[in-house]
Description:
This protein has one helix and no strands. By secondary structure, it is mainly α. The protein has one helix at about 5-35. It has one domain.
Amino acid sequence: MTHRSLRLCAILGTIGIAGMGCALALAGAAVWDAARGGRLITLTWSPS
C-alpha cells in the first residue's frame, strides 16, 4: 500500500472508532435515562 492509502486508512479508522464511541455513549445515556424514568423493560423472574 502506498503512504497515501495508509494515511487514508488511519483517518477512516479513527473516524470509525470515534463514531462507535459516540454511538455507545448515546445508547448508554438513553438506557440510563429510561431506567431512571422507570421506562426500562426489565424481565422479572418469579418462581411459581
